[in-house]
Amino acid sequence: MSAGENGGSGGCINGIKSALRVIPNFPKPGIMFQDITTLLLDPKAFKDTIDLFVERYKDKDISVIVGIEARGFIFGPPIALAIGAKFVPLRKPKKLPGEVISEKYILEYGSDCLEMHVGAVESGDRALVVDDLVATGGTLCAAMNLLERAGAEVVECACVIEVPDLKGRERLRSHGKPLYVLVESQFEPNSQ
Amino acid sequence: MMNTLRYLSSGIFVISPKLLTSSLPTSVKPSSISALARGETAGRRFYSTIAAVRTDLKVKCFSNMAAPDHKKNVDVKDDRISRISSSIRVIPDFPKPGIMFQDITTLLLDPVAFKDSIDLFIERYKGKDISVVAGVEARGFIFGPPIALAIGAKFVPMRKPNKLPGAVISEEYSLEYGTDIMEMHVGAVQAGERVLVIDDLIATGGTLVAAIKLLERVGASIVECACVIELPDLKGRDRLGDKPLFVLVSST
């Protein structure tokens, strides 16, 4: 499901989409990097982004929003504040102080690890996972594993941007969880 | 506890050091992680784990910088600040021995306290013609955007090297051992813009000074630096020089 299917928010979505920019060959040749920082420079578009998520989740009894370091920290907290949920940061190794649980996940080359605080999320919590973008879905799956290990129920994963060719949606579907995004990735660098 | 709290005329609550060093056990405060994680709001909760939180070493002052202008609002704001303060946990010896790490993640687990912290910043900065909120990676990304959204300002992330795509400007700054680099996007901030700089905590002030330098290099004007927590013993406030600092909680 993507917000583009909802005709009423079409105007908002166009504003959000045109506020994003694409940087070619970052972080390495061949990658068209979807940059959300330009969205953050447009207060109306940024607010519309958050409002679209808040509208979708405010009546879903969500008790916790987890945001994936670092760009998930930008979108997660405003949603959490608006719907009265806890915000839980998921971080790279050794950033969170105190006791953590870790989940390893595979990258294109090698692996990485995501950590969550012990006790932050509890059995019975209904969770939303937020990140700026979903590509292969590997990071989101690691996040969902952490939440499920802590006994929470993952309601949905939410991202601003989806890169459809990298099949993250299918990967989440095979994990049994839905994905909600606002826009699909663009291929041409914007004029800005 | 009230007889140990002295309300000074300047508006600072000070927890008597005598109470803390003599009568409190030096052991771990038993946790009620479940209660906190369930979001129970009865009273204030202190989130601790078996990772040994030393409550006897935790002295929190309520910063007079957050004292309201109008006496009649004192009680309301102090309640918010005391709730914020007690929701922050201290992890000893992180990231290395001797450091008492001020962990704001437990504040984020208390939706009322988190909202209060943002509201305190919004109340101070709305109507001040601030067009940019600059947040320092990564915990500044948690507090900056909600403030920016509420006051209608842009949010500009200040990042570690090689994270921001496209053209950036860089500023090197000193750490205790070695140096680090902070980057900002070219074009994110224009000359003449009025900027608020946000991070979760100010210690020595080195990071904030780097952010200030980047912003001033593009001709922006720093209105203030704002943090949830100040460690006054590390003298970050002095290091900011003529740039004002506003904090919610001061921790020695």
Walk me through the structure.
The complex is a heterodimer of chains A (192) and B (252). With 192 residues, chain A is an alpha/beta fold. Helices cover 31% and strands 30% of the residues of chain A. Chain A has six helices and nine strands; from the N terminus they run H-E-E-H-H-E-H-E-E-E-E-H-E-H-E. Chain A has helices at residues 10-19, 37-40, 43-57, 72-83, 138-149, 168-174, and strands at residues 21-24, 32-35, 64-68, 86-90, 100-106, 111-117, 126-134, 153-162, 179-184. In chain A, helix 1 (10-19) crosses helix 3 and helix 3 (43-57) crosses helix 4 (72-83). Chain A is globular and about 40 Å long. Chain A starts with 9 loop residues before the first helix and ends in an 8-residue tail after the last strand. The mean pLDDT of chain A is 93. Chain B has a six-stranded mixed sheet, with helices on both faces. The longest helix of chain B has 15 residues, at 111-125. By secondary structure, chain B is of the alpha/beta class. Chain B contains eight helices and twelve strands. Chains A and B meet through helix 3, helix 4 and strand 4 of A and helix 2, helix 5, helix 6 and strand 7 of B.
